Amino acid sequence: MIPRIYIPGDSGALALGAEKVAKAIASELAERGIEAKIVRNGSRGAYFLEPMVEVATANGRVAYGPVKTSDVKSLFDSGFLTGGHHKRWLGAPDKIPFLAKQTRLTFARCGVTDPLSLESYKKHGGLNGLTNALGLTPAAIVAQVTESGLRGRGGAGFPTGIKWKTVLDTVGDRKYIVCNADEGDSGTFADRMIMEGDPFVLIEGMTIAGIATGATKGFVYIRSEYPHAVAVMNKAVEIARKAGVLGASVLGSPNAFDMEIRVGAGAYVCGEETALLDSLEGKRGMVRAKPPLPAHKGLFGKPTVINNVISLASVPVIMDKGAAFYKDFGMGRSRGTIPIQIAGNVKYAGLFEAAFGMTLGEIVDEIGGGTATGRPVKAVQVGGPLGAYFPRALFDTPFDYEAFAAKDGLIGHAGIVVFDDTADMLKQARFAMEFCAIESCGKCTPCRIGSTRGVETIDRIAAGIEPEKNLALVTDLCNTMKFGSLCALGGFTPYPVMSSITHFPDDFKPAPVRVAAE
Ligand SMILES: Cc1cc2nc3c(=O)[nH]c(=O)nc-3n(C[C@H](O)[C@H](O)[C@H](O)COP(=O)(O)O)c2cc1C
Ligand code: SF4
Fold this sequence. Notes:
This protein is of the alpha/beta class. It has 4 domains: 4-100, Glutaredoxin (3-Layer(aba) Sandwich), CATH 3.40.30.10; 118-327, Rossmann fold; 331-420, Ubiquitin-like (UB roll); 425-517, de novo design (two linked rop proteins) (Up-down Bundle), CATH 1.20.1440. The chain is built from 24 helices and 16 strands. A hairpin with a 6-residue loop joins strand 14 and strand 15 (389-390). The longest helix is centred in the C-terminal third of the chain and has 18 residues, at 467-484. Mean pLDDT is 96; it is low at 513-518. The protein binds flavin mononucleotide and iron/sulfur cluster.
């Protein structure tokens, strides 16, 4: 049998040198006259081990990583094509602790299969969910998704089944499924990873959504900073269309569903669902007032399901294994699994899919291994740039929508960014206000003007000018933004600002030097 070598084509792995490693392995194969098949798989998400090269041996796959081009010759000399020992040897990939501790439902195939092989997708359970869905009525599919407890993974955690039911129950001559792949949150990469590593799962999820709600057309809105994901998704859609997964007769059924990939406009606010719809329609991305809900009047005024990539990519496993199977994972009202993206100053950065319920401390200290610098963890921002900063004192908070909300935080898209004790939380609070000022769509005053005033006021605190009065002013401003903004950009910026002030008050005390300078 020809040896198979897996080298990730995922852009995270490419950023760490996977392309150079692939070229070095190909030329070494040629030089040694060895015939082998190189598969460009997705990443398994253990980025601290990328580029992670795997070989298929008689005893299963064996991983090596992080591989550098300078390792390639010695890998061949060590007999890595048959799993030989080498300093980069990691053993069976699914036994690597970071991967072995995970519950991979949505990401089950990511890093395992060839992303653009529909055969490989089917061999690993792909299309089972869609096949099952085709045997059900739309209402029965919606009932399964509702019963599974799946909530939107884009940020707000809204129950997916309820959203789908609204679209199913709304009359329209045309309905749409829109996939939100704008993924603008700091430290997040789950959407990108799945689009590059297992694109068919998203296509399958969107097709199921179409059949469930009566929509015949889908759009994936992918941020412009993701050219690799755009390329993979375009190819996958073409393959799916040729194979009859998409088109006038989905898998030979009377149902029609097709889709297109669109590149985003490059603004954070275009991830907000209504601004995204404006952008998709070719306009400047401005937030729309609700009602009407997109489910009633969405893209081009038609009933529209708008869901995050991970929400949609989690549907196939639900339709394959059943709502009860999925619902069995998790805690409270947070059911199933969530791909936690561990980033920032952390030793083991990567994607960790787990059932809801792990504590923040377990995620940061045990899975993430603490900081990369080796210094104490000072703060963890959970949920992107609009998420709160949690101190170590809140590390017992379980990863659950309600538990985070109870502590004035949010899970958002499940990105966590770790900071060590050198972080200046006043600067982080200022950054949150500045980010809001830069990214504001400008529609409402508390966000457009408030964020700029927020930056100025925090600067005055930093300069030691009437710190107590200015702190009270920032708090007041945050309340105005929280309750007076039209969308969560202005409405949630107070979370990082107020959590910094509440949990790290020392960073807001005037430094003697600053006072002296006044
Ligand atoms: C400023 C802003 C940016 C957002 N960015 C994203 C994003 O990049 N991706 C995403 O899925 N949702 C984003 N959202 C949330 C969406 O508005 C919406 O809730 C989501 O797409 C719904 O899908 P879900 O129910 O599957 O989560 C953003 C919201 C706001 C207010
Ligand atoms: S809160 Fe900000 S981003 Fe949202 S609608 Fe208002 S101005 Fe636009």
